[in-house]
Structure prediction request, 381 residues.
Amino acid sequence: MAAHASDPRTVHSDTPSRGSGGAGRAPRIEERLERGGLAIELLRAPAWLFGCAAAVRGTLYDRGVLAATRVAAPVVSIGNLTAGGSGKTPMAVWLARRLEARGRRVGLLSRGYGAAPGELNDEGRLLAELAPQALAVQDRDRVRGALELIARGADVIVLDDGFQHRRLARDLDLVLVDATRPWGFAGRRAHEAALLPRGLLRERPNALRRASAIVITRVDQVGSAALVELRAELEHYAPHAPIACAVHRPMRLRTLSGELRDLATLRGAQIDCVSALGSPQAFERTLESLGARLGERRRLPDHHRYVAADLAGLGAAGRAVLTSAKDATKLGALKLDLELLVLEVELELVDGGAPLEAQLETLPLSQAERERAALHEGLHG
Prediction:
């Protein structure tokens, strides 16, 4: 069911990499794209073709030539404009908890990038830990996956990474924008951003007109002036979409076995960190915000399948080694000769949450919910 997806990003660390291929420091693909150069600029031609294809496809959906399939339960899509991490997994957990608090049976639907056959990928395993009451399906055919969730009893479907997957109709289109790199690269404005493969945009910024709401994530990692500028850009492209602001709040520090540690122990501590995330820089800034002093920053490709050699050399001179909760779902199965500490974060809306809550409140009932309501009325009417 789950599909495999290769990731061109390579190992990056502040010291020569070990394991996972390659000798010496190898920059990730987004770092090479941001650096530029003649060979990189040649990618503007395929990027133009990619943009044309995306625009034609979008127009066909807008005009109904390509039909979106509506299923018998409301669908809330979480997505973004750029390749890479913007906080979709923490947002999915936030949504699942809010919808469950309203008495809805939540189904979590995703493609399952990098999953082994018959297994959940790292994000799926993390969601299972953080939203254990929710049903979960990973299927590259999201319409088929949605129908499976409904058959298993889901009243509402949370579609992960669904903004560009328009074949499944949705009731809400929530778009996440990472404040630290809203258009793909840090410090770039929307008009300077490039589409894949030259840049990291999956669609042009005017696609935001489809958004039901926008959530700017990691707002605590940028200055107030940059945030004001970003909000103005977003309001230009999506004037009717409410904008909320969110942070990834550090919540717990634990070992792989679940033993809790005090977050305050990170203040002033010299540590190494290892991650295989869409945005490793954001994870590292979170550690620094807790007062940690980072030594080696070992970055592996998103959805990387760890082996013990990937961690060789970390924790030298008694330094603690930190990783993310997403990475911990894979590292826990390895036999390691060092203690790993896991930082758990949760998404917290710090501004503009009321309109988003109101949108969730007005989601329609699923067909099954309507049938149960009619049966209840018939029995007690």
